[in-house]
């Protein structure tokens, strides 16, 4: 497990936590709108270091959050002023991020330094791979475009590992048609199988749920991050797609933290029974 706990003080809409939030290897955050679920995930998205590049958007992580809310750093502060403090339990130590309008600083234990560098040493991840360590999928209008750009960058690796075929077969389990492979045309498409020929269909024409599912699965498979963070997890997903995706996640080694509004997700988890779930 990558991150064990999080304590928040004056970040976004959260004034303070009564006590630190504890995470398992598979954590579901469920609640009403404005309950703080997205704020928790956004705080986690700053790992392993707010000044590192977000793999999907190619922006610094702190700037990624700022742009997510179409404003300034002030939009990340409780009531738009003061200092936000995020305290993460990583392994047996504490990593701290302080954010104010002027600067973003980090400390490890009581020592002010780059928490990314310490996390790199702790988990033995090379610096050039650190942006792949934590993958954040927010519910935004631009996420599908950003995911497609990264998929194209990784297409040789996706094909070398055979994921372009495996993902098509996975999709066949939750749609009525039969697809044989993912094809890197412009835009990314699927080869649809007919009795006498094949036809290429744009991935986006299968609906935003199927498009999002295939794109995030492709990235997760190739990059094997330490932590994946999914906001509004079920948005656009057919119920059968939700269950299949949860079953797929169950067998992966990374830590998963997701938010949802849907009680159906919890019913699916009862059936699937992933180990170490909260």
Automatic annotation (TrEMBL):
UniProt-recorded name of the protein: ATPase AAA-type core domain-containing protein
Domain Endonuclease GajA/Old nuclease/RecF-like AAA: from-to ranges: 1-111
Xref: Pfam families: AAA_15, AAA_21
Chain ranges of the ATPase AAA-type core domain: 120-263
InterPro entries from the UniProt entry: AAA_GajA/Old/RecF-like (IPR041685), ATPase_AAA_core (IPR003959), Bact_Antivir_Def_Nuclease (IPR051396), P-loop_NTPase (IPR027417)
Organism: marine sediment metagenome
Span of the signal peptide: none
Entry-linked SUPFAM superfamilies: P-loop containing nucleoside triphosphate hydrolases
């Amino acid at each position: 497990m990558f991150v064990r706990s999080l304590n928040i003080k004056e970040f976004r809409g959260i004034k303070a936590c009564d006590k630190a939030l504890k995470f398992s290897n598979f954590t579901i955050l469920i609640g009403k709108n404005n309950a703080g679920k997205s704020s928790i995930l956004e705080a986690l998205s700053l790992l392993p270091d707010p000044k590192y590049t977000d793999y999907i958007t190619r922006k610094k992580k702190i700037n990624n959050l700022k742009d997510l809310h179409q404003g300034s750093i002030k939009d990340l502060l409780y009531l738009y002023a003061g200092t936000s403090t995020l305290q993460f339990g990583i392994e047996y130590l504490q990593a701290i991020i302080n954010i104010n309008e002027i600067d973003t600083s980090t400390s490890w234990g009581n020592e002010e330094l780059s928490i990314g560098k310490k996390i790199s040493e702790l988990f033995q991840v090379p610096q050039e791979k650190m942006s792949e360590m934590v993958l954040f999928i927010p519910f935004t209008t631009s996420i599908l475009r950003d995911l497609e750009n990264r998929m194209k960058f990784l297409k040789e690796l996706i094909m070398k590992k055979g994921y372009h075929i495996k993902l098509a077969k996975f999709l066949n389990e939750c749609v009525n048609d039969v697809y044989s492979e993912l094809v890197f045309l412009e835009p990314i498409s699927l080869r649809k199988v007919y009795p006498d020929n094949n036809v290429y269909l744009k991935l986006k024409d299968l609906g935003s749920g199927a498009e999002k599912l295939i794109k995030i699965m492709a990235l997760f498979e190739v990059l094997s991050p330490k932590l994946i963070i999914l906001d509004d997890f079920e948005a656009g997903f057919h119920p059968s797609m939700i269950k299949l995706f949860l079953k797929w996640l169950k067998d992966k080694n990374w830590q998963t933290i997701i938010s949802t509004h849907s009680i159906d997700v919890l019913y699916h988890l009862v059936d699937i029974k992933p180990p170490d779930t909260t």
